[in-house]
Amino acid sequence: MGETMGEAMGEQGSRRTGSRRGVARAGLGLAVGVGAALLLAACGGGEAGDDAAKKGSSAKPSATAPSEGGKQDARLATRTTELGKVLTDGRGHTLYTFDKDTAKSSACTGKCATLWPPVTGTPQGGAGLPEDTGTLQRPDGATQATYDGHALYRFAKDTAPGKTAGDGVKGVWHAVVITPASGN
After folding, report:
1. Cα(19)–Cα(155) distance, integer angstroms
2. How far is 83 from 90, CA to CA, in rounded Å?
3. Average pLDDT for residues 105-123, to the nearest whole number?
């Protein structure tokens, strides 16, 4: 009976420990989920995962996307995508504009700029690139590239050149389409 009682106590002890671990894991999962929701809500990206899935993009942010204030490729180019001919950075990643910006200032800072890294520096490009480029000064003092009076950004969830998952996020993020695809 001693062994049976000891085995029963050992099993109960394990159950209690397992239960505590389960609660801790559930709490951690909840905290991570809330943090992710806050990050997306900070810059109008609440449905970004849904949009990314619809357009075949991975939901993982690019490891190469710099944080705000980091050096971003200001070399501009164009690339043909499902949307048509779009403006890209020098690595072929689609560039976007944000409706909440003005011609002289960027409204995407902090956590927003983590998900939507600004294209910093003076824009440079080759033949066939639209000429209406310029710069504005960001709130952190960095120079941000502009096109047609709009600040330019990448979308961290566009994990490969030519992806356009950021187009239409929350109705305020738009790919810079130079020539629409036929039928668009």
Report:
1. 40
2. 19
3. 96
